[in-house]
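Hi R.,

Here's the chain you asked about this morning:
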Amino acid sequence: MKLRLLDDSIRLRLSRSDVTAVDEEGAIAGQTRFPFGGAFTYVLEALPNGAAASASYVEDCMAVGLPAAEISVWAGDDTAISLRAEVQLPDGNRLKLLVEKDFTCLTHRHDEDQSDLFLNPES
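And the predicted structure, written out as tokens:
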């Protein structure tokens, strides 16, 4: 799972195995470690039916949650590329959430393993 942050937006890009795992197991996680023992963890959770999208940041862990039913439909549809949601912030603004299937690059990159990515529709 890849993570991109920009101001009040979170974007997660998932490989094929990530999509399968969050659909079947209910959650996936990634972690970035830092020198001297620090680590930042990021999680995507499939929330029980009826639950609204959510986002939290507690003890060096960012968690994004989306309804499990939406994740299951998205995971099973080859034409569905992304899931979008927004979460209300305390100041009245909105935190934008975007979860996407990660596609192979159109230009080959020697330093990246793309074997578990989705076929790019542009190719």
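The chain has two helices and eight strands.

Let me know if you need anything else.
M.
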